[in-house]
Amino acid sequence: MSRQHPYLLSGLGDEAGQSLGEQIRAHLDLGWEEMELRSLQGEFLSDWDYGVFLGVCRDLAAAGLRVTVIDSRIANWSRPITAPFEQDEEELRILADRMHTLGSRNVRVMSYPNDGLPEDEWRDRVVERMHRLTELAAKNEIVLLHENCSGWGGESAENCLSLIQKINHPAFRLLFDTGNGIAYKYDAFQFLQQVWPYVEHVHIKDGMRKRSDTIYTLPGEGHSKVRECVKWLYDHDYRGILAIEPHLHLIPHLQQSGGGSDMSASYITYGRHFERWLADMFSSTEGGVFI
């Protein structure tokens, strides 16, 4: 199937609706064949009853949707560096088993927000935990994708590079989110220019700061330099998936959630806007038609 841009598109399903049916319908409406799984009715994949999980697998297969990435809670904003490590190990073990059933290879992780520790101790604990998680991932033939978000590795490009170089393993790579710089107060494009060789997946988000608040927008309408980021990725041979994470209704780390037809309609509008935006961006490239 030909496209007017060079990328397969995907998105975080629970931003289209809380139920699996809503998530599937939104992606089929968009004509996309990929979807990321994070939660159903607010429950993360590793917490689902196994029978529910098997039903999800059947429904996704029937819809012809592939699951690109599992978005976990491992080392995220809800689990500071002082939280018990065992909960992350257990979640990864459960996810590894379920990812093989789904045919997925990548799981999104972060790198532990601090909880009052000195900088050096925080860093050392993060590196030690990430080594152990990476070993477990490699044993199970899956890949951890570290997002430039909450945690030591998301504080700066320098930290991110240091972390990936200390882990030094193909089972530990990066997920770059274009919009996280707005919330965490750094220039995402500058961040990308330093870490791009390790990026294996991309989330598309845009926004702007208004006083002390982060306001999320359609892609290209905020201050995240989405165009510059996508162009840099293309020019540096990134041909992976671009996955939308609108944050217009569901923002998990702020405990903001949505539901109903407005949530789904907003997600679809965002996806279609992004498709048009990409087509316009690449209209003069290679005749504007991609396979």
TrEMBL record:
Molecular-function annotations in GO? isomerase activity
One Pfam family assigned to this protein is AP_endonuc_2
**InterPro entries hit by this protein:** IolE/XylAMocC-like, Xyl_isomerase-like_sf, Xyl_isomerase-like_TIM-brl
Name all Xylose isomerase-like TIM barrel domain ranges.
44-247
Chain segments annotated as coiled-coil in the UniProt record:
none
Q: Which UniProt keywords apply?
A: Isomerase
**Segment forming the signal sequence:** none
The name under which this protein is listed is: Sugar phosphate isomerase/epimerase
